[in-house]
Protein: Response regulator
Amino acid sequence: MWKVLLVEDETFVRESVKEIIQWEDMGFTLTGEASNGEEALEMIRKQQPDLVLCDIVMPKMDGLELLKETRRAGIASKFVMLTCMGDFESMRKAMEFGASNYILKLSMSVKDLRETLAKISAELSSSTSKPAAMSAAEETAERITHPEVKKIILYIDEHYDEEITLASLSRHVMMGENYVSALFKKKTGETLIHYLHRIRIEKAIELLLTSDLPVNQIGQNVGFMNDNYFIKIFKRITGTTPSQYRNAK
Structure:
């Protein structure tokens, strides 16, 4: 069964979505629900659901920000956004940030939801059958069409363990630093430094789970020369320290 987290601030909509179909018949099980983005982010970090069915407009943290924070944490949960008619800009941004699909709340039907879940189930089955999961860098590069931004993403993926600065990336694509910084944020939804940290933490997680290397060595291997800074960034992104993460897994 694929795990689903339902995130919606309107109780009536949450209950309607829960009751509209037989989830188990589609291969899904509802493992939790949240009424705002902040609450949902904590649940995503702990549960790592396969699918997040998420409203876009919510208090405390909206659906778009929740999607971005989930990706920054290196969590690859599928996102399907619940939205209102006419909110085309939010729909466009959600798809740009990596959402798999969206459903209009007011006209949602059993058919809409079943078709969407069937699509997500196929995607999940396909991804788990691959020898290795696609890295965050590959996923981002796949959905970004701007050539210079794609070039930066692939460069970071290959050189994350080296010293990388805005100046070195700007030289790599032969553009000004301010322009590169603004362009990357516009096309990916996150700053260069946040993206670099996210990739390094993703690589650190792989080493934590597949090796016996000490935490300080893992930090150095992924590009953090300062142990305390590595632990600080790791905790900011995952909610736990590297040692706690390794022990929990």
Q: What stands out?
A: The beta strands are 2-7, 28-34, 51-55, 78-83, 101-104. Confidence is low (pLDDT under 50) at residues 129-133.
